[in-house]
Structure formats: structure tokens, C-alpha cells
């Protein structure tokens, strides 16, 4: 009986593995077309002032709903786009969408709102992002001060070409934020990099902050360092009022999280701006 059971389990494992492989094949097959036909969307999560809950910016986040496999997480979209040689096209899509929002914000009299685009270090290594951004902003008549790039140090970033690009982007007046700070390869040393003018504290330290004295200590330390170096700090993943309150007490001025709003489509983002604030205050 034990043997029989074992074989069934093996077959079940086999079936599950086959599902995983099939799903992956479907996604690989459909992603190219989804990018080409504009089915990949960018949604925007508000960044708010902690004291008033006013919207001061938006972060662009990839959204793709696959007709048979449902929502696909952004990191998987990116991984597959790279695999099938569509990363440049995807980056174009993301940047274009950010520009569309900036243009609409300007028209609506919200030119002081900032739009942030996530950039992975590998895109910088490929070496055409600075041209894409600087030429694009100029062509559309958008001020560099409205734009921000968020870099995740998921791998050590190195190389002259990366440095050169970051320098050009920063010199143009575009804000550079270090994303997911406190995880991966983001180190204290990266804060000495004068081109970085913002740090986003990873949600891992923020969620449940009120219940975690250790996290409070770490967040406070980051706030102090930021103050000393003249780096702005944004807290990610604020879900609870108690955490919002504590962050404010620790001197944090900007935040993002479900307490205020999830990412929403562009039209909805503009609607949210018409309100005085999102979430509690
Ligand atoms: P990230 O840049 O750190 O983005 C924040 C993630 O946390 C988003 O997940 C967002 O939906 C989620 N989030 C925001 N507030 C809360 C909250 O209060 N609670 C919780 N539990 N989660 C919250 P998402 O959209 O799944 O994105 C995951 C990651 O994928 C991003 O992390 C970013 O690294 C990457 N990504 C997304 N869009 C792009 C893109 O256009 N380009 C690149 N290169 N990477 C992207
Ligand atoms: Mg980000
Ligand atoms: Mg982050
Ligand atoms: Mg992240």
C-alpha cells in the first residue's frame, strides 16, 4: 500500500511540474504579443506626505493579466522579457507610460507631482537608458524634475557604463532613488554615492513596525543617516495606521502603502489627485 501511495504522489508531482512548465511556455509565447499590442499596462501607486496624506507622486508598476493564467507578477514579466529578448521594448513601454502620466499631470496643474519608474541594474548595464530618458523627456517637453528612477540593487552594480549613465541622469536633474533599501545588495556604502538622493526603506522593515522594536531601531537609524547625508526617505508598505504614526514620529515625511492606496490605472490616479488626500490622516 505504501508503494502504491508513493507512486500516486510521484504522479501528482509530475502533473504539477508539467503545469508549471506549460504555464511558463504560455507566458513566454504570449508576452511578446502583449508588449507589441499594448496589453501590458502600467498602474500607478500614490506616494503621499505622511503628515497630510496628500499625493506628492506616483510609482509606475507593471500590470499584466494573462487570459488563462491570471495576473503575472512584475518580476516574472521582467525575467521572461529578458529571456525572449523583449526587455528594451518593455522598458520603452514603461517609460512612455510614465511620460503620458507626467503630461497629464502637467495639464491638470500638478506639475509638482513626481513620477517614478523602476529600473533594474541590468538595464543600466546594457547602456542606452540615459539616451532613452533624456531624449524622451526633451521630445515631449517634460521637465526632468518631474521624473525619478528607482534602482534595486538586486545584484552588485558595477562598470563604467553604469556609472556614466547614472551621472548623466542625475546631472540632468532627475531624482535617483535606491529601492528596497536594507535588502539584497543595497549597502551603507551606496549611500555615499552622491547621485542617490532618495532611499526607499523596504516594506520588510515597515510592515508591523509598531510591533517590532528592532525594526523601529533600524528605521530610526536610516532616518538619521538620511538626515545627515541630505537624502530623502520614503517608507514602503505602510498598511496600518499605527505604523504610519510611528514613521511620522521617527521623522519620516513620505510613504507608500495599502493604507493610502494600491496601484491604480492612470485615469484613476488622476481622479485620486482631485481629492485632497488618500487614506486616513
Ligand atoms: P517595488 O519597486 O519595491 O514595488 C513595490 C511593490 O510593493 C509593488 O509590488 C507594490 O504593489 C507592493 N506594495 C505597495 N504597497 C504595499 C503595501 O502596503 N503592502 C504590500 N504587501 N505590498 C505593497 P509589485 O507591483 O508586485 O512589484 C514588485 C516589484 O517588481 C517591484 O518592487 C519592482 O522591483 C518590480 N517592478 C514593477 N514594475 C516594474 C517595472 O516597470 N520595471 C522594473 N524594472 N521593475 C518593476
Ligand atoms: Mg520601486
Ligand atoms: Mg521597493
Ligand atoms: Mg521590491
TrEMBL record:
Ranges in a coiled coil: none
Every EAL domain range: 24-277
Top-level taxon in the UniProt lineage: Bacteria
Name this protein carries in UniProt: EAL domain-containing protein
Portion of the parent chain present: 357 to 637 of 637
Amino acid at each position: 500500500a505504501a508503494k502504491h501511495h508513493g507512486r500516486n504522489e510521484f504522479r501528482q508531482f509530475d502533473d504539477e511540474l508539467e503545469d508549471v512548465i506549460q504555464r511558463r511556455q504560455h507566458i513566454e509565447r504570449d508576452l511578446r504579443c502583449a508588449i507589441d499590442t499594448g496589453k501590458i499596462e502600467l498602474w500607478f501607486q500614490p506616494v503621499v506626505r505622511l503628515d497630510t496624506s496628500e499625493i506628492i507622486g506616483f510609482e509606475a508598476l507593471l500590470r499584466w493579466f494573462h487570459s488563462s493564467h491570471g495576473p503575472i507578477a512584475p518580476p516574472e514579466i521582467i525575467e521572461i522579457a529578458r529571456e525572449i529578448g523583449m526587455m528594451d521594448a518593455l522598458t520603452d513601454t514603461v517609460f512612455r507610460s510614465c511620460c503620458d502620466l507626467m503630461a497629464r499631470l502637467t495639464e491638470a496643474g500638478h506639475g509638482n507631482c513626481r513620477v517614478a519608474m523602476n529600473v533594474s541594474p541590468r538595464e543600466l548595464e546594457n547602456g542606452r537608458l540615459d539616451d532613452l530618458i533624456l531624449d524622451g523627456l526633451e521630445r515631449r517637453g517634460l521637465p526632468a524634475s518631474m521624473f525619478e528612477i528607482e534602482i534595486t540593487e538586486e545584484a552588485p552594480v558595477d562598470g563604467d557604463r553604469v556609472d556614466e549613465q547614472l551621472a548623466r541622469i542625475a546631472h540632468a536633474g532627475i531624482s535617483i532613488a535606491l529601492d528596497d533599501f536594507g535588502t539584497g545588495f543595497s549597502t551603507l556604502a551606496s549611500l555615499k554615492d552622491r547621485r542617490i538622493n532618495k532611499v526607499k526603506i523596504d516594506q520588510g522593515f515597515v510592515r508591523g513596525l509598531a510591533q517590532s522594536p528592532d525594526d523601529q531601531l533600524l528605521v530610526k537609524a536610516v532616518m538619521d543617516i538620511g538626515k545627515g547625508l541630505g537624502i530623502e526617505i520614503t517608507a514602503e508598505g505602510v498598511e496600518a495606521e499605527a505604523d504610519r504614526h510611528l514613521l511620522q514620529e521617527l521623522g519620516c515625511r513620505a510613504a507608500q502603502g495599502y493604507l493610502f492606496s494600491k496601484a491604480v490605472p492612470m485615469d484613476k490616479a488622476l481622479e485620486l489627485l482631485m481629492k485632497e488626500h488618500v487614506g486616513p490622516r
